[in-house]
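chain and backbone:
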Amino acid sequence: MGAKERGAGAVDRRQARILAMQALCQLDAQGEGFLERVPGWLADSGEAQTTVTYAQRVIERAWADRELTAAEVGRQAQNWAVGRMAAVDRNVIRVALAEFDLRAAPAKVVLDEAVEIANAFGGAESGRFVNGVLDAVWKDTQRGE
């Protein structure tokens, strides 16, 4: 379903998640300097402004929390330092954890979408890996609340 079919004001969260993951991969590759180019990069995506705005919020949160995310993921994915993960897997996880924090969508939806995006953009085992890590992180954070 295209942006016009959803309506001009609707947020395409799936596309926002994909854009956020891609931007985070660019940030990993190009460094912090890419952060100032993210708004223009998002605008060039052709997505509705509501989708771009949501993606920007997720990117900012995920990038700001990347060290906290690395520590949390390190606790859950033993023997898998965040730096050793495939870029897609790492950034799909970052996006999902940022969305968990933003509480803009139900956790189950965020988790399911993360697995689907990992399957679409990552390797053969990406979906299972992302699901395992996010499920463990989610369960652990729920015990702490």
Notes: The chain has one domain: 3-144. The mean pLDDT is 88. The domain at 3-144 is CATH 1.10.940.10 (N-utilizing Substance Protein B Homolog; Chain A).
